[in-house]
Amino acid sequence: MGRLSIHKLKEWKAQGRRFAMITAYDYPTARLVEQAGIPIILVGDSLGSVVLGYDSTVPVTMDDIVYHTRAVVRATEKAIVVADMPFMSYQADPNEAMRNAGRLLKEGGATAVKLEGGSHIVPLVRRMVEAGIPVMGHLGLTPQSVNQFGGHKVQGKTPAAAAKLIADARALEDAGAFAVVLETIPAPLARMVTERLAIPTIGIGAGPHCDAQVQVLHDMLGIYDDRRPLKHAKRYAVLGAAIRDAVRAYIEEVEGGAFPTAEHSFEMDEATLAELAQAG
Ligand SMILES: Nc1nc(=O)c2c([nH]1)NC[C@@H]1CN(c3ccc(C(=O)N[C@@H](CCC(=O)O)C(=O)O)cc3)CN21
Ligand SMILES: CC(C)C(=O)C(=O)O
Ligand SMILES: [Mg+2]
Predict the structure, then answer these.
(1) What family does the database annotate (predicted)?
(2) What is the pTM of this model?
């Protein structure tokens, strides 16, 4: 049967059908999100924050993304798997960018790649699409530029910044991008972009009018229930507390001798045991 086609997404938009994308970085979580019916999985460079413990996405490498993409691809058969191109894997040199994008498809097994940025990456996006590499765009709060922005701040708030974002979105569509992520921008601006494009917009902190939404899995699942929740994220579960409680119960049972019992232990037959005892 194969994976969902990227071309379906434009049809879904035309039909007014909304959809969800979610991040996953490993085999068990990718399996679970596919079983739940997610059509698109993003192997986001947010893995730097949520699984590798960095305080931004800047340190994430090509090798990190390839490694995690392979695990996600092994776990799934239907979902479109999009791999984030990490910081400095496409900004320095277009030829290197092409080879890196190729690696994500050839070695990683991804269906598509995602790049942050607007008009300045449009020629590269066109070249990738012409080479057979499906590209998802990413505008607004592009976390790889956190040091340029001076923090994770709402983008596109001034008339000039909003106009630039709309122009960038159009340029990405013209270059052949199959969808565009809009991150942390005012909801009315995301609505305007959504109305003006034929390709789907995928929002995160971009309001309810986008064609699709994306969330970081670990935020949704409440893995970090001790941190202040990000405004754009909604906790659909509190797995942090559930994991901590389970590990506490395990520690207590080991320390108190309640685990393991016969139920989780293996027997030996009486004859072998007798022979062993005799041998001294
Ligand atoms: N766990 C996690 N979730 C994410 O969505 C995420 C990451 N990590 N790491 C990579 C980037 C960084 N992102 C971030 C990080 C912080 C804010 C933040 O602090 N937002 C403020 C609102 C910003 C404003 O008011 O201008 C907030 O209060 O949530 C937003 C996006 C999004 N991505
Ligand atoms: C938040 C999404 C859009 C992302 O780029 C990531 O998870 O890295
Ligand atoms: Mg990312």
Answers:
(1) Belongs to the PanB family.
(2) 0.96
